[in-house]
Amino acid sequence: MHKSSVWARKIHRLTIVRAPSYIAGSETRASLEAPGFVEVMVSLTANTVIFRLLLAVIVLAPLPLGANRPWAWSLLAVLTGLLLGAWALLVLSGRCRAVVSMARLQPMMVLFGIALCWAAVQTSSVTPQSWWHPLWAEAGAVLGGRERVGMVSIDPALTLVAILRLLCYGGIFWLAVQLGRDSDRAREGLVAVAVGGVAYAIYGLTVYFGGWETILWVPKWSYRGDLTATFVNRNAYGAYAGMGVLCCIGLFLEALKPARPGQVRRVGELTETVMVEGVPYLVGALVLGTALLLSHSRGAFLCTGLGVGVLMAGMVGSGMLRPRLALSLAGVIAVVGLAALVMSGDVTLKRLGEPNTQQNGDGRAEVYQLVLQAVVDAPWTGQGLGTFQPAFRMYRGTSLPDAEEWANAHSVHLETAMDLGLPAMAALYGGILLVLAGGLRGLRERRRNHIYSATALAAAALLIAHGVVDASAQTPAIAATLALLLGLGYAQSWSLRETGGHLVPTPCRLGA
What we know:
Layout: H1 5-15, H2 26-33, H3 37-42, H4 46-60, H5 70-92, H6 102-121, H7 134-143, H8 156-179, H9 183-210, E1 214-215, E2 218-219, H10 234-256, H11 267-294, H12 298-317, H13 323-344, H14 346-352, H15 364-377, H16 388-392, H17 412-420, H18 422-445, H19 450-466, H20 476-491
Antiparallel strand pairs: 1-2
Helix pairs in contact: 4-5, 4-8, 4-9, 5-8, 6-18, 8-20, 9-10, 9-11, 9-20, 10-11, 10-12, 10-19, 11-13, 12-19, 13-14, 15-17, 17-18, 18-19, 18-20, 19-20
C-alpha cells in the first residue's frame, strides 16, 4: 500500500459533500436530488455554527480561573443562554428542527426539574415554619420583628445562584444532545475537548518548568509548587486533565477500529493508520498525564485510572475492541503512564503514601462527620442549595485547621445531601443515572459510534469517584465539560432504526 493512502483517504473525505450522518431512508435520495441541496450542504448550517460556538465557550471556560469566579461563570451562563435562545428561535421559525424528541428526554428532564423546583421552594417563605432554617428564628428574635419571615435556605441569594448554574449545565447538555446526533459534530466535540485539554496542559507545563508561580499574569496565592494551569485548585485541574486524558485515549482507540464492521486490516495499513491518526492522540494523552502528575493531586490521579478502566471496559463490552487487543492496548497505556510517573510523579507517589488525617494537617474526616450531622438535622428539606459555607459555620468547631477556609465539604455527594436534602438529591442524581443508563444501552445495542458513550461514562466515573473526596465537579468549567460529554454520549446512544430511519432535518444556514 502506498504510504500516502491514509492521507489520500482523509483528503477525499474532506472534499466530498455529504449529508449529515443522521439522514437516512428514501427521503434522503429525494433531498439529494433536489435543486440547490449541494449548495446548502456546502455552506455552514446554522446548527453547525451554534455547535461550534458552544464548543468555543466550553473550551475557553477554563481560561478565567476555571470559570470559578462570579463574573466568569455568569458569562458562561449568559453565552449558553444566548446559544440556546438562538437555536430555539431557529426551531420555532421552521428553519431547523429538534432532532431529539421531548419524549426521549422527558424522564431525566422531570427528575432534573423536580430538584430545581425544590431548590426554588427553599428560597420561598411560603413554607411551614418547621421547615425553616433555625437561623431565621434567631435572627427574628434578635431583630425584634413582629412578622416572622423565614425559609428553608439559610441564604436564598446563594441558592438562586446555584439554580442558575444548574440551568446553565442543563442548557449545555440539551444543545449537545440536539446537535450531537450528527456523528461528525459529535467527533468535533470530542476532538475539541482533547485539543483544549492539551493546550492547557502545555501552558501549565511551560509555567511549571519555567518556575513562574503565576496563573496567567496573576501571582499564585495558593498551591505554589503544583501545576494548576489556569485553575486555582490543583485537584480541580487534575480532574480536568483526567477528562482530557480520557478523550485522547478514546480518540486513539477510535482510530484503531476498521472502516467497516468485520473488516480485517492488514498489518501495514493498521500501522500506517495508527501512526497518522492515532499516535497524535496518544502523545496528547502523555502530555496531559504528565501535567496531571505534576498537579500532585492524589484523588485525580487515582480516579483518572478508574476512568481509563471504565473506558476500556466499555470498548470491550461494545465489541469495538477484542479482549486480547484491549489487554495489549492497556499494556501500552500502562507503560506510557508508568514512564510519565517515573519522570514526573515523585511528589504524587509520596502524597499517595500519606494518610489523609488530621495529624498531617487535614481535617476532612471531621468535616465529613459534621456534614453528616447537618444532613441528619434536615434530611428532607436540606439547608439550601449552594449554601454550604454559611450553613457550615453553625457546625464547625475550633479544632478544624483553617476553619474559615472551608468553602466546600470536599465531597460533592455529602454537600449535595446537606444542601438539597435527600429526596431532591435522589431526583437530581436519578436524572444523571438515566443519562448514564442510556450510554450503557448504546454500548450494548449500537453497532457503531460507541466511543462517545464510552467516553461520557468514563468521564462521569472519574468525577463521581473524585466527588467522594473533593469538589472538582463544582468547578463551572469542569461541570460544563462533563455536561457536553454526557450530551454527546447520550445523543449517540441509539440508532436511526429507533426513529424510523427517515429523519431529515430542514436544511438551514445563516441568513436563510
